[in-house]
TrEMBL record:
Source organism of the structure: Salvia splendens (Scarlet sage)
Main location: secreted
Source organism, top-level taxon: Eukaryota
Statement: the UniProt record of this protein carries the keyword Signal: yes
Gene Ontology MF terms in the entry: polygalacturonase activity
Keywords: Cell wall, Cell wall biogenesis/degradation, Glycosidase, Hydrolase, Secreted, Signal
Family membership noted in the UniProt record: Belongs to the glycosyl hydrolase 28 family.
InterPro entries the UniProt entry points to: Glyco_hydro_28, PbH1, Pectin_lyas_fold, Pectin_lyase_fold/virulence
Annotated GO biological process: carbohydrate metabolic process; cell wall organization
Annotated active site: 254
Origin organism lineage: Eukaryota, Viridiplantae, Streptophyta, Embryophyta, Tracheophyta
UniProt subcellular location: Secreted, Cell wall
Name used for this protein in its record: Polygalacturonase
């Protein structure tokens, strides 16, 4: 009898242990599952003529609302997807979403604008999506068809091609962006973002086609990108801090800029910006800080290290215009070699207004920063 009791207890223990293991496996599989949503399965045609925005929206809603685990939306290769203005909104139930672009996404022409589901100032908008990755593996293309917009861009009413708004823990990599209507990429109110291996192009004469425009964002890394545009390769605006920019090839374009800041007396801050190991190729400017003199602007902790290349600037290749109300502080230049070309070889110089910092091993000499 005693032996039977022992056997029964052992049997019950084994059953309990097996149940625990099954339960753990069940929970792990629920939280670790990943589901792929192909836009063509939701009706996207990919012939470059039919507007596929509704199919993209349907795929997004399915991925966003999937629940536990992760989701991936894939835009397959070998097809061109015409897409009108569209908004991908969160928050999502999925722990993270990967938007994989292997084909080409092309914007509707200007005359068809306003018929889609966007918010008016962006062609493609991601809003309040946490843990978002937009990847292309070197194959994905965004084509904004900007040429039809540029004649009216002087009015500044053209849309940004790709905007990320309040998307924390963001990753964007391996994509080609071309001919944006205005900015190619805007990052607004995002915390912790990694941007890498992008190829951004637009004619040097195209207006306001910034490569990446940043505002009110923190802790960003932008690296290993090639940008040839009609405006700033990278523009950093107010409320931004903790940005590392490295191994960027820029040109043509207006260089890498902070500002403009403080228009109409506005209070704005930019701090902890590192620009290192970047190359300019015949840019209209080199590096610059732009502040309105009557603005309450605070720019601090900006470092330029190992920046080289050429500009076609007729005046200053390094131009720091800081607020007279609050000078720029802790500005550091180290190992700078930026030369003017195109008939302006003797005009390379640095100009500073109200800038405090240090400079060493710099061409042109930067004597205007003061400690």
């Amino acid at each position: 009898m005693q032996g039977f009791v022992v056997y029964l207890l052992l049997l019950m223990g084994s059953i309990f242990e097996l149940s625990v293991v099954k339960c753990a496996r069940s929970k792990g599989s629920d939280s670790g599952t990943s589901t792929t949503f192909d836009v063509t399965k939701f009706g996207a045609i990919g012939n470059g003529k039919t507007d596929d925005a509704k199919a993209f929206t349907s795929a997004w809603e399915a991925a966003c609302n999937k629940g536990l685990g992760t989701s991936k939306i894939t835009v397959p290769s070998g097809k061109t997807f015409l897409v009108s203005a569209i908004k991908f909104a969160g928050p999502c139930k999925s722990r993270s979403i990967t938007f994989e672009i292997l084909g080409t996404i092309v914007a509707v022409p200007k005359q068809a604008w306003g018929k889609g589901g966007g918010d008016g100032d962006a062609w493609i908008l991601f809003h309040q999506v946490q843990g978002l990755s937009v990847v292309g593996n070197g194959k994905g293309v965004f084509d904004g068809q900007g040429a039809s917009w540029w004649p009216r861009e002087r009015k500044n009413d053209s849309p940004t091609a790709l905007r990320f708004s309040h998307c924390d823990n963001l990753s964007v990599s391996g994509l080609k962006h071309m001919n944006s209507q205005k900015n190619h990429i805007s990052i607004n109110g995002c915390n912790h973002a990694n941007i890498s291996n992008l190829h951004i192009t637009a004619p040097g004469t195209s207006p306001n086609t910034d490569g990446i425009d940043i505002s009110s964002s923190t802790n960003l890394s932008i690296q290993d990108c090639v940008m040839a545009t009609g405006d700033d390769c990278i523009a950093i605006n107010g409320g931004t801090s903790g940005v590392k920019i490295s191994r960027i090839t820029c040109g043509p374009g207006h260089g890498i800029s902070i500002g403009s800041l403080g228009k109409n007396g506005k209070h704005e801050e930019v701090e902890r910006i590192l620009v290192e190991n970047c190359t300019f190729i015949k840019t209209q400017n080199g590096v610059r800080i732009k502040s309105w003199q009557d603005g309450a602007v605070k720019v601090s902790g900006v470092k330029y290290i190992g920046v080289r290349g050429t500009t076609v600037a007729k005046d200053a290749t390094i131009d720091l215009k800081c607020s007279k109300t609050v000078p720029c502080t802790d500005i550091e230049f180290s190992n700078i070699n930026i030369k003017s070309v195109g008939g302006h070889a003797d005009s390379a110089k640095a100009k500073c207004t109200n800038a405090q910092g240090t400079a060493r091993s710099c061409t042109p000499p930067i004597h205007c920063v003061k400690t």
